[in-house]
Structures are given as structure tokens and as C-alpha cells.
Amino acid sequence: MSAPPALPEFIFFDLDDTLLDDEVSTQSGVNALFAHYSTDEVEDRHQRWDAALQLYYPDFLAGRINVQQLQQSRIRHVLPERMFTDEEALAAFEYFMVHYVEGSTLFSDTRDAISRLKARGIGLGVISNGPNDMQVRKLTAVGLYDELDVVVTAERAGVGKPNVAIFDFALAEANKQAKDCWCIGDNLNNDVLAANEAGLTGVLLDRNGRNIDYAGLKIAALDEIA
Known about the structure:
With about 230 residues, this protein is an alpha/beta fold. The protein has 9 helices and 6 strands; from the N terminus they run E-H-H-H-H-H-E-H-E-H-H-E-H-E-E.
């Protein structure tokens, strides 16, 4: 993005694949999970994990299952040969979580961008579809949680992106008007178009040169706006 417009009063960020490299942390957690709970080398373990996310996460976002049921379902899907009780499935997910959080990795431009924006007096927040405990633990692990003014998750808001209600919830928490805020994220529908619909300015972050067709604000790295 060349000659960016004046920065707003407040910027909301998506978390996974925007501030944090979720692929790195997920690989760490999944590898540890299978090493601990499976006696065989499972070549498709990451595909299983991705499939479980796609299968059960919509039900979580829609409120049809709670976070514990989501965790149990995902564990049972990726390790079907294990006859987990509910408590054992939650313990297995926590084993994944410990290694997932330990593997949390910021993109190389994240910390400097956050520091520069804070120095300029810009309010900062996160709007994420992830479960609350998971996202807070990751933000804390990488030292960003205390740098943010607002952390909103779908679990806290009771609704997920692209529903505009989660943006309304975040605006209320930040005590800001939509016209004074940006939302930056890698997902065109969830982070950008939905933010625009809610009255914010959506900014598409395209780190990998996907050449997504979007006529609004688009950046390839966070340092373009910081």
C-alpha cells in the first residue's frame, strides 16, 4: 500500500495468521500430541487436525457446542483409535495446548508495528474467532496481551466473524465509533468485508502475495501502516 491514509484512533487486528504465525504453533502442538498419544507414525496427522477444525468449528461459532465439546470432538476425530472419556479427551487437548502455546510465534513485523503504533497513541485491540482461553494464553506467551487495550473473542462476544455483532461488541469495549477504527486481517470475508459492513475500515493483510481482488486498503506487511 503506497501513501496510506492517516491512521485512525484505534486499530483492531485479527490474531491467527495476522499477528501470530498459527501454522508454526499448530505444527508444534499436533506433533507433540501424536508423539504422546499415538504408538504409530501418523503421516496425515496435520490433515486430520485441519479436517477436525473445519468439521466442528462452525458448530462452536454458531453456539451449538461449547468450547469443551469442541475440544473433545477434535481430539476424538484426530485420534479415533483411542477410546477417550470426556475427561481424557480434555486432558489430551490440554497436552496439545501446552505445546501449541509454547510454539506461539509472532510474524517478524508484529512486535515493531505494535510498538510504533502505541508510541503514536493509537489504540490497539484483537478481534478473534478463537476460544478465549486459547487466544489469551497465546498473547500472553508472546508478550502482547498487556500491550493491547481490548481482546475480543467469539466466545466472549457470543458470536463470531463475519457477524457484524462481534465488531459492535469490540467497539463498545474500546469505547470507539466505527468510523474511527480499522480492522486488519488476512481473511477477506471475516476480517475485511465484515468490518466494512460494521462501519469500520477493513484492511486486507496479504503476506503471501495471493493477489486477492480487493479495491480497498491492502497491505503486504504490518510495517506499511506503522
